[in-house]
Amino acid sequence: MNQMVKDPAKMRLEDIDVSAPELYEYDSWQPYFKRLREECPVHYQAESPFGPFWSVTKYDDICYVESHPEIFSSEPFITIGEFGGDIPVNAFIWTDPPLHDVQRAAVQPAVAPKNLQNFKDLIRQRTQEQLDSLPIGEEFDWVEKVSVDLTTKMLATLFAFPLEQRSKLTYWSDIIAMSPSVGGGSVDDEERMVGLQDCLAQFTQLWHAIEQQEPSFNLISLLQQGEATKDMVNDPMTYLGNIALLIVGGNDTTRNSMSGSVLLMNEFPDQFEKARDNEKLIPNLVSEVVRMQTPLAHMRRTAKQDTVLNGQQIKKGDKVVMWYLSANRDEDKIENPNQFIIDRPNVRQHLSFGFGVHRCMGNRLAEMQLQILWEEIYKRFSKIEIVGEVKRTGSNFVHGYEKMPVILTAK
Fold first, then answer.
1. Of 117, 112, 202, nearest to 156 (Cα)?
2. Closest Cα to residue 271, out of 250, 253, 251, 292?
3. CB burial class (10 A; 0-12, 13-18, 19+) of residue 304?
4. CB of 168 closer than 8 Å to CB of 147
5. Calpha distance 75→53 (Å, rounded)
6. Could you report the per-residue pLDDT of 14-72, keeping only the tens digit for each?
7. What does the alpha-carbon distance between residue 203 and residue 290 come to, in Å, rounded to a whole number?
8. CA-based nearest residue to 56, from 315, 291, 294, 320
9. How far is Cα 223 from Cα 102, in angstroms, rounded to an integer?
10. What is the pLDDT of residue 222?
11. Structural domains for the chain
């Protein structure tokens, strides 16, 4: 365990704070959650940089919280920290039904299963071009050259955002999700404010440009076509909030699963050989990657009333944090949860995409991107070897990677 991280076995239970960003930066979170699952599955932390909060660490308890929005509200925020009062944005993910359902329904068609086929050929073409451009036998950063670029190109397509400016989407995603107030990241508050103002200005211009075009299946056009969202541009904080949500949801999750899959390939090579020999197992491989990676570590709810959860008395107004990465390692729900097993039963039975009304609407698109990536990897490479230190994200919200040096071996 990294010297910056204490041994949870030697700590008092009430002192365990799983919101500490260094647990994730140094990949030391697992023993903390294991102890909480065993001794206090609904755990109260009275003091943290994010204020007091409850940690919900087991699978079934999280499903209960997700299934009862009338008790556990998504308002006012869905992260352990506050988004920041400097830019008071709104978004449908931190609302409850019926408002949530109406705004989500406006953009859902872009990633509906029948419309994903519109993207399949484009995703494959871009993936092929990206992989063909990589050096063989030379060290490079997989995060930068593959994960970030592929996901940002797809995100630009979904928004009808200029492809040549796509790096801005990555930047905006990082300053949104890596704010110290949101999940303990290191982005400066002033930089974040300036960046989000720029994001709003560019997307406002984009809205008006798309308004002059024929309706299509990009996310902005769909908002314009929705009865409840057609004037959203006139409410800048709601517009910015929903754009921010769609950027982070479409970027961080897929990109970190793409990087996480390479790490898992190095840790469990036998399972990747199994899928290489039987391509019908690649969808299973993708689901197991998403479970093991859990690209968003948590979501938060706020108690709307006094209630009891797994024997614990929760008061109205308390923060209730659902730790998906703990639930995805719950020994009572998943057999051998720390092992990467692509042909395990019910391989899609994980909580990485959430559960209930807030289940990730882009989950099928994310799975498609990962599946195509590994289909094309298997055609080209026999090995993707990690050859240096993997740098992880210092955040309790985005569970991801900043750097992953690799060397490819051609098939």
1. 202
2. 292
3. middle
4. no
5. 15
6. 999 999 999 999 999 999 999 999 999 999 999 999 999 999 999 999 999 999 999 99
7. 30
8. 320
9. 11
10. 81
11. 8-410 (1.10.630.10)
- Say if residue 76 is preceded by a cis peptide, omega within 30 of 0: yes
Distances (CA, A) of 32 to 242, 331, 386: 33, 14, 27
Return the closest-CA partner of residue 397 out of 5, 101, 29.
29
* Contact predicate 274/281, CB 8 Å: yes
Crossing angle (nearest 10°) for helices 167-177 and 149-159: 100
Q: What is the mean pLDDT of each run of 10 residues along the chain (411 residues)?
A: 72 95 95 97 96 97 96 88 61 60 62 73 92 98 95 88 92 80 72 89 96 85 83 87 80 90 97 95 97 95 97 98 98 97 94 79 83 97 97 93 97 91
How many beta carbons lie within 10 A of that of residue 280, not counting itself? 7
Angle at 223 between CA 255 and CA 68, to 5 degrees: 70
Task: Please tell me the predicted confidence (pLDDT) of residue 103.
Answer: 59
Distance CA 159, CA 369 (A): 17
Residue 177, C-beta contacts closer than 8 angstroms, at least 6 positions apart: 183, 185, 248, 252, 395, 397, 398
Q: How far apart are CA 274 and CA 17, in angstroms?
A: 39
Confidence (pLDDT) at 192:
82
What pLDDT digit, counting tens, does each position of 380-401 carry?
999 999 999 999 999 999 999 9
Contacts of 382 (CB under 8 A, 6+ apart): 409, 410, 411
Q: Please report where in the chains the tokens 């659902």 appear, as a residue.
A: 322
Structure tokens belonging to residue 131: 């992989």
Distance CA 286, CA 296 (A): 16
CB contact burial 371-388 (16+ within 10 A = b; e otherwise): bbbbebbbeebeebebee
